[in-house]
Amino acid sequence: MILHGLLKAAFLGQLVTDWLGDRGTLKTFEVSYRGIDQPDHPYRCRGRVTKVEGEEVELEVWGEDEGGKRTTVGMATVRLGG
Questions:
Q1: Which CATH number covers residue 22?
Q2: What is the overall mean pLDDT for the chain?
Q3: Which of 5, 51, 53, 68 is deepest in the core (most CB within 10 A)?
Q4: What are phi and psi of 25, to 5 degrees?
């Protein structure tokens, strides 16, 4: 059994929207799958801000396995302030 790709994308999307809260709006979101994850193994979602331009913020997001290998990678753009 594997952890489905759409579920991993949903986890990463939730990471972004939880971080953003009511401070703005998610504008773009994309992911790419690079490896297989097992549902009975740890899967960590992480992210970092890569660019701030006015009210737009670009984020790099990724999911990693228990060894720290990035098995899902993606980008998101949010607009702060509504």
A1: 3.10.129.10
A2: 97
A3: 5
A4: -130, 140
Q: Which of 38, 37, 47, 43 is nearest to 73 (CA)?
A: 47
Number of compact structural domains in the chain: 1
Tokens in use for 70?
């990035």
**How far apart, in whole angstroms, are the C-alpha atoms of residue 72 and residue 61?**
8
Domain that holds residue 16: 5-80
Which residue, chain included where needed, has tokens 């009975």? 40
Over the Cα atoms of the chain, what is R_g? 13
For the chain, what's the residue count?
82
- pLDDT beyond 70 at 78: yes
- Average pLDDT on 37-56 reads 97
